Structures are given as structure tokens and as C-alpha cells.
From TrEMBL:
GO terms for cellular component: cytoplasm. GO terms for molecular function: ethanolamine kinase activity. PANTHER family: CHOLINE/ETHANOALAMINE KINASE, ETHANOLAMINE KINASE. SUPFAM superfamilies: Protein kinase-like (PK-like) (SSF56112). Pfam families: Choline_kinase (PF01633). The keyword ATP-binding does not apply. This is ethanolamine kinase. It comes from Absidia repens.
Amino acid sequence: MPPNTAQLSQTDQAESTYDSWRTKLINDTTYVDIEVDSATLFDGAWEVVKAVFTSWDKEKLKFVQCKDGITNQLVRVTDTVSKQSVLVRAYGKGSERIIDRKQEIVNIITLSRQGLAAPLYARFRNGLIYGFIEGRVSHVDDLRHPRTAKWIATRLAQLHQVKLPIQPTDSTTRHQRTPLSNQDQQLWKTMRGWLDQVPEQYTDPRTQAIFKNRFNLNHIKAELDQLIERLEKLESPIVFSHNDLLYGNIILNDTKEEAYFIDYEYGCYAFRGFDIGNHFNEHCGFEFDYSKYPSKSFQFEWLRWYLQAGSNGGKITKKKEQREHVPDFLFFFLGGRECIV
């Protein structure tokens, strides 16, 4: 067969159509041809802001660098006249190796249209500028406090009902199937992708010695394959998931008694049980204090809040609780496994 004449399979055609639609959605978002340098973060943030908010006066702006995340640098810019704040986020160098930046933009646009994320104003060469959510960043203790934990469970139930917008295609393609199936989830692809980024040999001898002494990458990959085989049998529902619900990605508004989520870098279709289980692991904090892991009674209370919020006012029976909980509880072990992966 001559080059470039191979016929695409139905799945490949669907993927190609979806990628084309995604590219169009991203290209419709304002683009600022500026790169923000970490060494001159405020100056770079100003260049981006003035291109988007042309009436703002630099002398009347307040710049505050937020605590750096693992993969980003963040600046809050506030116009002291209008009192409006925006966030300028510069991607960490090389972070695109583990984060699908195109999908992140689709996530933000989709969620902002449904009131679940701040609006996206523009993208620039190495980052985004978007709205600021009023509230306070949660603390690890907020995750297990009944009052705030209920807000989080309620918001996650709303998030899990989100459907990503799609380009209308043939009704037989996977992007229009409901309910979603294992073919739609991206969790395994993401986790395997992370493992593939681990080098076989570190250039620093000390780092290499520590890695060789503590980790066996082949064993970890084999263990992940075993987990995948077992966990797929549980039939946990496929939902749009945040996949990184640590306390630093949760904003609490004590006045409105609501929780909001930020940083949808890892958002994708995944198993509902993973999103919930991973969040429960975050109760232990960065110190991995598993004495703080939620008790079984707290887990069931949390899941009752979650199910009630997702039932649109319907009654949650004991039988439904048990049917919904069991498959997901087993998935919580994968949330702990993520600490290694």
C-alpha cells in the first residue's frame, strides 16, 4: 500500500475527530504571544494582564505570588479600582511530560461554563490567565471536619456529573456512548505514562543509590498491572474526575458554606472510586500520617453526603448505599498506591 493511504479504524477516526475538535476549542481561546520567565515573574504577569485587561493601570495593581505548586508558579493580580483579581499561572519547566495541557484547557472551559471553575481569560506561551475564586485554601484538618467535609463531598458529587463537550460524530463512536465504559477512562494511561518518565539510570550517584535501594521499577509496573486486572472487575462508574483532591486544591467559602476545586491539570474520565479514595488518602497530609486516615464510620457518612448531593433530592435507601459503596471502597487501595506511582 502506498505511504499515507492506510485506512483509519473506527476508533482512530473518532480519536482524530475529537483531537480536531479539541484543537479548535483551544484555538478559539484568546492567545497572548508572551512567555513568562520565573526570574521576572511579576513583570511577565503584567505583560500578560495588560494584553487581556487593556484598561488596567499597572500603578493601581497589586501583585502577590502565591505559594508555588509542584508544577506551576502562580501570581494573583488585583486591580485595586475594580477589586477584580485574576491568576496568572506559568507552567513548570518540563511539566508537559506528565500533564496534558490541551486537556487541561478543555477541562477549565467546560467547568467554567457550568459554574464549577473560574473563567479562562486567555492562554500564553507557557501558561494561563483565569479568574480568582474567593475563599480560603483549605487545611488538612478541614478535610475531616464534618462541616467542611460535607461541602467537599457535595461539590465532588456535582463534578462527577459533568460530561465533557464533544464534537458531534457518528453515533457509534465511543465519544457518544453512555454510560461511559473502561475505554473512555484515562487513568491507566496516565499512571503508566508517569512510570515511563522514570529514568532507568540517574546521573547523580547519590540519587541513583537511593532509587536502587528503595524501588524496583519492574516490580512496581507488574504490581500496577495486577491492580488494573483486579480493579476493572469492580465496575466502579466512570466519571469526570479531578484526580488530585489534596487540601491545597480545595477553596472553602465559609460565608456561602461551599467548597470549590482548583487546578484541573489531571482532570479526565476515570473511576469514581479512585477520585474518592485518593481524596481520603489526602486526609493523611504530606507527612503520610495514616492515623488520620478517615475511619469507616466517617467514610460512610461522607459517602452518604456524596450520594445525597448526586441524587437531585431523591431518597437514598440503605440498599442503594451498600450497592454504591462496596465497589468503590475496594478502589481506595489504588488511591494509596498513587503515593508510589
